[in-house]
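Ticket #4471: structure output looks truncated?

Reporter: J.K.
Steps to reproduce: submitted the chain below (314 residues) through the standard prediction queue, then opened the result file.
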Amino acid sequence: MNYTKEITKALAPVEVDGLVALCCGSTVTLYFEDGHAEKVRQALLGVVNEYLSWAEGRLTWWFVEGQQFSKVSALQAKDMSRYLLSSKYEEPDSDLKWSFMWHGGVHKEDASPIRFEALGASRIESEQHDCLSYIRASFPLDMNSDALHMTAVRWAQALSAVHGYGGLAMITSPDIELASVSEGLVVYRGERFPGLDVDYPADHALWTQDGIKGGSWLTILSDRFVERLGGATRIQQALGTPFALTSYSGGVVIRAGEEPEIGDRNRNVATPLSVVLATVLKPIRVKSHPDVSISPEGFDQDRFERWLARFDQG
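Returned output as attached by the reporter:
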């Protein structure tokens, strides 16, 4: 993806006491159902292995639910099958969830554009509360646009994604204390650059069961949401060019132009495609979402709901 030198400088990594508290990358976030189910975990294993193969030699830290970060260099093999395919997740009334993260930071606390994180709802959460599971894969800013697009299509089909999005996003430290230090800057950048995603998927998964978070450069919609908008043909007609829809078994991926729009409200750089997309997707977008802050400087509920509606006209 191509960005001006000015934008690249404005989105440079932020260090605090020698640790990277905030960076930016190209990301794909997908939400899906039945995270406890064996067929879903099998599909997820394929997605994880694809990412690990792509990131070979660039990952430095990892953890799974209930454990601390460990160095990747200490692993005999990067095999997630024993963890992901355990039958314990499907036991009756199981309240066990899975979660893991791999990243490429020098220090375990570092924010890194090489990162794969995921969280799976337990059987009880899935069956009794319809809780969604998610994955978020991060790549460098210069990730090839077509490659990111087709990766989103493959993974959306593999996981039968309910919805999702992809494009340019901020990535905070996996350490909560360090992440809290950069929250004021996350708000500033999110409001200045409307095309830069503010992404807290663990929170969004709880509040986007019946509506989507919003549109992005890539917007993944399952058939249930496509039908609520009148079908794929009607969506394409409403969007026009240069929007493109890629169909897969279970939904569509909307691509808003060749490259993501970032915008810059300080310099009156508009995001016209994002405005068109927001208009079409508004009927299925969530209107209510709690705060996503971990410090007083973060997004409270009112401010975050305004951010979700940032592309609305008027």
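Triage note (M.O.): checked the attachment and the full token line is present. The longest helix spans residues 38-54.
Status: closed, working as intended.
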